[in-house]
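Chapter summary example.
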Amino acid sequence: MKTNLAAGTSFPGPQGSLFLQVSYTQIRSFHAVASAGGFTAASRVLHVGQPTITGQVQALESFYGVELFHRRGRRVELTEAGKELYAVTQRMEILEKEAQEVLQRAGGFKSGHLRIGAVGPFHVTEMLALFHERFPDLEITVTVRNSQEILESLLSFEVDVAVLSQTEEDQRLLAVPFCQEPLVVFVHAEHPWAEREELRIEELENQPVILREPGSTTRRAFEKALTKAGVKISPVMEIGSREAVWLAVSRGLGIGVVSDEEFMWHPGLRKLTLKNADVYTTAHVVCLRERRNSRMIHAFLEIVEELRKV
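The structure predicted for these 310 residues follows.
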């Protein structure tokens, strides 16, 4: 005998307990609210009415007797239970995408969306050019932030692949070294060092240096080299983007540090190499180890293997 159960229907289980048939729609609604930060925003993402979204989430909360969100006007914040459930639904979203990839594979891999996080456009553009040539119908999104933020996005499934200046040992990650770049110093065109090509790291003692934010790989590598050499600088400011550092140096506010690959020629700037300091960053292409066989990620890593320089 067939029995049709509506979403959210309860029925007797062992020892008279009740079980809820949690519907995919309810989970999807919860995930959309958690991702978008509110019920109205979630309704726009899912293209359904807000009352529908609210009802699906309330059904989960009411049946289990838990609060998944703290309501603060139009915005919401996840409770501890909500955070735990969101971690699960993030993995479910990835599995859904991988299921789509399995189906797309039979059709010749003609559609999909690859999300890349990078610390800058310098290395990733080379990879993207070849990847787009091979798979012109795939959608690609690139997010540019500092290394720490990109790594957090990777671990929270917000990006599929990360291109980082440096990576740390983590069993959750698969990291492929791509290239190694030395750090260089750059100064204003009228700086006393402007006509020089090289600099000893000891000459940076007490010099005004413009630093990147604490999460920057360039900053970590530079500070490590300074500590090793016993050199103390005089930081004048911290700036959260390399473009802003370039602008500050071009205005004569201090000395900048960047990887050689990332230095862009400008009439108001002069580059100097550090001749006696072994200071460099190594660009890595990183993905979650559990996702390395995902169709698009695997295809991107094959491109990286063709282009890698180390």
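To summarize the output: The chain is about 40% helix and 25% strand.
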